[in-house]
UniProtKB/TrEMBL annotation:
GO molecular function per UniProt: kinase activity
Transmembrane segments: none
Protein name in UniProt: Carbohydrate kinase PfkB domain-containing protein
Gene3D superfamilies named among the record's database cross-references: 3.40.1190.20
Keywords: Kinase, Transferase
Carbohydrate kinase PfkB domain mapped to chain residues: 29-221
Family classification: Belongs to the carbohydrate kinase PfkB family.
Organism: Citrus sinensis (Sweet orange)
Superkingdom as given in the UniProt entry: Eukaryota
Amino acid sequence: MADNHNPTSGAGSKDLSASMDGGSGAYDRLVVCFGEMLIDFVPTVGGVSLAEAPAFKKAPGGAPANVAVGISRLGGSSAFVGKLGDDEFGYMLANILKENNVDTSGVRYDSTARTALAFVTLRADGEREFLFFRHPSADMLLCESELDKNLIKQGSIFHYGSISLIAEPCRSTQLAAMNLAKESGSILSYDPNLRLPLWPSEEAAREGIMSIWDQADIIKVKFETRYSCIQKMLLHWYRYSSGFFMFQ
């Protein structure tokens, strides 16, 4: 459900309807997606915990990369900016992006860290279970000097999440990319994508996610009852802030 809640007006605000109205040339507008791409390992059977899974199958994952692929499959133009390991999984993921016509000129490779891995399942009780291997992973090591600044400047929309905010140097790199995109006139699209096990604490997650909240023009929010404290905070901001919210 999308809710254009308390839209802004006046100097400094963006006319989102004009930017997303689907008019002539809408599908030529580039969406630049920044963040993590990883390998998800999911059980070969449903409704089991990770410990109960008899075997796993690999699949490409990472919310920003998923958005880039989805936009391309819908006929749009997209690019992915991030870092992969200089390993077989990293090259596999890059090839998947290329096969889906996603611009990979912003992808970098790291020879000192591996591509991130995540084991994920949907248990019989309806709860998702995650186990991440990022200590650190290549996506966490993207430096500002490695950004393709020309690519970011070309984007009409700059889409990002919160996972890249967890550790340096990627945190500073994301902030620099956001500033560059904003200065270039891009719409900033934010998916908080809470993955609490990756953060040092719930308080660190709250502070990290909210630290860039007010810079976004579009925010996608998914409510999960497991994280009631953070969800109450998100509801508060929805009620009292301006912008375009998308609820899942």
